[in-house]
Amino acid sequence: EDQVTQSPEALRLQEGESSSLNCSYTVSGLRGLFWYRQDPGKGPEFLFTLYSAGEEKEKERLKATLTKKESFLHITAPKPEDSATYLCAPGGGYNKLIFGAGTRLAVHP
Amino acid sequence: NAGVTQTPKFQVLKTGQSMTLQCAQDMNHNSMYWYRQDPGMGLRLIYYSASEGTTDKGEVPNGYNVSRLNKREFSLRLESAAPSQTSVYFCASGRGRGDSNQPQHFGDGTRLSIL
């Protein structure tokens, strides 16, 4: 059965304190793995797509990486405006994005 | 640059009432989706439409119906609302015709409470 687990559920960082969020997945025939950011009261906002093991994508203070079983979202020197819930969603097969429950990130000044 | 627009943003219903959630996208996308998001759980797919004229069930379709009105619009209907359908509902659209290698783009949701 296809599964996605994100950890930790919640993470509190001081401004400038780098860390990583984990997305572990079991999906047959991975077609792409997507990262989203969701702010309170808003819909998920697309960040990255990763297609194959070893691939990396970067955007400002965020870098996403992919292995055959996990994806990491690395946050370097975060700022308070990076506070949000980060969602991971591997896609396996026809119209099948499987969303994790997310990691709630709080960055304090 | 609206993207995906959902109406209404908030709604309170009584058990047994019916209503339709509206969704429109202006990105000329082929596929459209309806999800629900509940606390502590990932987004779950209710129904999707890979292209104009087609609709298919997702993971949690019971109690819902959909209509792909045209390429831009995809509506979700609750025929007889139940308290278990209290949730936040998100509509999304994607460029592809259903292959899971394209990102989906989301609206800001409809917050639905059923008493």
Extended strand count of chain A: 10
Order of helices and strands of chain B: EEEEEEEEEEE
Unreliable spans of chain A are none
Helix vs. strand class of chain B = mainly beta
Beta-strand share of residues of chain A: over 45%
Major beta-sheet overview of chain A: 5 strands, antiparallel
Mean pLDDT of chain A: 94
Structural notes for this entry:
The complex is a heterodimer of chains A (109) and B (115). Chain A has no helices and ten strands. With 109 residues, chain A is mainly beta. The N and C termini of chain A lie far apart (41 Å). Chain B has 115 residues and is mainly beta. Chain B has no helices and eleven strands. The N and C termini of chain B lie far apart (36 Å). Chains A and B meet through strand 4, strand 5 and strand 9 of A and strand 4, strand 5 and strand 10 of B.
Feature tags:
heterodimer, A: 109 residues, mainly beta, 5-stranded antiparallel beta sheet, 10 strands, B: 115 residues, 4-stranded antiparallel beta sheet, 11 strands
